UniProtKB/TrEMBL annotation, chains A, B:
Catalytic reaction list: (R)-5-diphosphomevalonate + ATP = isopentenyl diphosphate + ADP + phosphate + CO2
Associated pathway: Isoprenoid biosynthesis; isopentenyl diphosphate biosynthesis via mevalonate pathway; isopentenyl diphosphate from (R)-mevalonate: step 3/3
Keyword terms, alphabetized: ATP-binding, Lipid biosynthesis, Lipid metabolism, Lyase, Nucleotide-binding, Steroid biosynthesis, Steroid metabolism, Sterol biosynthesis, Sterol metabolism
Residues covered by the Mvd1 C-terminal domain: 195-383
Enzyme Commission number, as recorded: 4.1.1.33
Protein family: Belongs to the diphosphomevalonate decarboxylase family.
One Pfam family this sequence matches: MDD_C
GO molecular function: ATP binding; diphosphomevalonate decarboxylase activity
Stretches assigned to the Diphosphomevalonate decarboxylase-like N-terminal domain: 10-180
Protein name: Diphosphomevalonate decarboxylase
Keyword Nuclease annotated: no
Enzyme class, UniProt record, top EC level: lyase
GO CC term (a single one): cytosol
Length: 397, 397
């Protein structure tokens, strides 16, 4: 069996300036530009292997061990775009194998639970598109490839790049200028870290596509957000990244998360993604920043109750004096810290924080949190030799 | 002892178009006009008795049995305004007793728990101002008197009138055109009823005055709300009242509650008045309206987690088939319904609602609700012979 194989990992990204609202649902064109931080693939990544060959009889997809449909319009759009670019190469060089005519097998695995609401579709589509681009040996830039990933899942375009990433909304109706660009590589401001508090959701949230459509169609405040609020914030946040201005970056991040959730609440019927635990974490973050009289932590919430806390490495012990004290019972700490380091956080808390202030903290908050994921800024998709496909059969290993 | 005594009751009002934001903190001038429904004093009222006389040695206030300070700037402003109007009368007619020079004793009692977050300050200031206006035999119109109550507590001005009430924000810097006017008396649309679900709040909310200031100062979406959203809604909601257009009135009421809470969430730090129980009640209301494919109920939330559900009397059995089923264990039902009527609600629920739909309801919601208060639209302040002051001593009975 003649088979061509390629494998890639792709990262999760968590927006600090939120994407909410589509001006074109098929092309996934947004109503505003957005900004995100790409997270390390050591902690959160999708690994995708793809193969193609004349004997592959149909397009197939396996996701975390189960076969899934490839029929969705979004996936079909991605595959069609990739094949078109490959065909261009084949037209220019008749020696190239005619991969654009062959079916593909895609096998994909996350190293984190898909159900946890951790932007898995962004990493998933980024990995799928990058793996096929690699298989096809496409010479196009990452920004160019990001437009294809965008058609799979809007925020996936930002996972094509590492570090600090902007998704420029563009203006054109065909989406040809709606793409991800790097604001700065991770090396520019490498000490950006993230602690994700995975919050238990009792019920399924409104899916983000239908949620966006509802907000665009019914929220009176939404038009103001996209026209007057976000454009300024986009400029300010890019500038804050370039200048490594943490207090500004942090404040804009928190404000934009709140603004996005405010337009969800202003939708009709209203959409609620944050719950009382999420709100308790927001209050805790403001409490911590007020306690130190310094911006230590910035929260942001996507379309679900999980909190992503951004902070700078040099403030880690100040932050975790509180966070470890309150969430010590939640799993996830020992993957990054030794027992001695964790004990130090506890004694920092005991020695530095007055008993009077301790009373104001919500000691029950940890009951609504199932896991802490400790990670940091990371690079874009990576080629890998790890392969999920059996090159003899073209099926998952 | 020469004593002059007067007693008045005043109602609670619950806004359907929310007052949030002051353009002048001392005069309580709002950043937008608002609309409310005045609720029946059978269920929720403040009773205030006042007395004055040359032998009363100082201004004094008793509230629900405890002596309270009268020193607050707001109360002092109310008293000064009332004395100024009285002095005008005395200047015109030298036979009148010189009440404007004498101290006053004020004794006030609510027939509902003050702590429940049920707009008690609105009823309280309305009763205080009306009782003194009666004592002073002021000839001024209720709208004129409402400007004095407004200085005590903004929304108190709306409690000076019965039925459907607008608080016109006015334009003048001295507040002389910021007053309550009646859109329509209760007799115009008498079948408006309200069920208040008192939700347990675990912690004290942000006081509304400081909350408003925070929103005005920090929310980017707020300016859009007051400039572009509320002015249209104000016209539309007045029209809906005049036309007794329930579906429009209900939708605007729900949207405006959500819009107000959205600007709270967009404040920095964000303010949260609704909790997960409040949100559960919102979802339930949308579920009920969707179930009947008809607008049965409209929710609204003030600066706290309590839900006020407005509905028309003719839809009561449709609404309570759900609400009694889910909140039967909460006290408050037997004050308005016989055992047979309540049993009928339960059997309506069992017979009409399919088992499949029942599964979607949150059966635990009642655990977050401490009380249901069933009431309806009502008139403005009422004179009463009931007196809380011992006319021999000038002290509370």
């Amino acid at each position: 069996m003649t088979l061509f194989v390629a494998s890639t990992t792709a990262p999760v990204n968590i927006a600090t300036l939120k994407y909410w609202g589509k001006r074109d649902k098929t092309l996934n064109l947004p109503t505003n530009s957005s900004i995100s931080v790409t997270l390390s693939q050591e902690d959160l990544r999708t690994l995708t292997s793809v193969c193609t060959g004349p004997e592959i009889t149909e397009d197939k997809l396996w996701l975390n061990g189960s076969e899934e449909s490839l029929k969705s319009e979004r996936t079909q759009n991605c595959l069609a775009d990739l094949r078109k670019l490959r065909m261009k190469l084949e037209d220019e060089d008749s020696n190239l194998p005619k991969m654009s005519k062959w079916n593909v097998v895609i096998v994909s695995e996350n190293n984190f639970p898909t159900a946890a609401g951790l932007a898995s579709s962004a990493a998933g589509f980024a990995a799928l598109v990058m793996a096929i681009a690699k298989l096809y040996e496409l010479p196009d830039s990452l920004s160019e490839i990001s437009k294809i990933a965008r058609k799979g899942s809007g925020s996936a375009c930002r996972s094509l790049l590492g570090g600090y990433v902007a998704w420029e909304m563009g203006e054109k109706a065909d989406g040809s200028d709606s793409k991800a660009v790097q604001i700065a590589p991770m090396e520019h401001w490498p000490n950006m870290k993230a602690a994700i508090l995975v919050v238990s959701a009792s019920k399924k949230d409104t899916p983000s596509t239908s949620g966006m459509q509802l907000t665009v169609g019914t929220s009176d405040l939404f038009q103001h957000r996209i026209k007057d609020v976000v454009p300024h914030r986009f400029v300010e946040m890019k500038q804050a990244v370039l200048e490594k201005d943490w207090p500004t970056f942090a404040e804009l991040t928190m404000k934009d998360s709140n603004s996005f959730h405010a337009t969800c609440l202003d939708s009709f019927p209203p959409i609620f993604y944050m719950n009382d635990v999420s709100k308790g974490i927001i209050k805790l973050c403001h409490f911590i920043n007020a306690f130190y009289n310094e911006t230590i932590v910035a929260y942001t919430f996507d379309a679900g109750p999980n909190a992503v806390l951004y902070y700078l490495e040099e403030n880690e012990s100040k932050l975790f004096a509180f966070i470890y004290e309150l969430f010590a019972e939640v799993p996830g700490w020992d993957s990054k810290f030794s027992k001695d380091e964790l004990t130090q956080f506890l004694s920092d808390f005991d020695s530095k924080i007055s008993n009077q202030l301790k009373v104001e903290l919500d000691k029950e908050l940890y009951k609504g949190v199932t896991k802490v994921i400790l990670t940091h800024i990371g690079p874009g998709p990576q080629s890998t030799d790890e392969c999920l496909i059996d090159t003899k059969t073209g099926l998952p290993k």
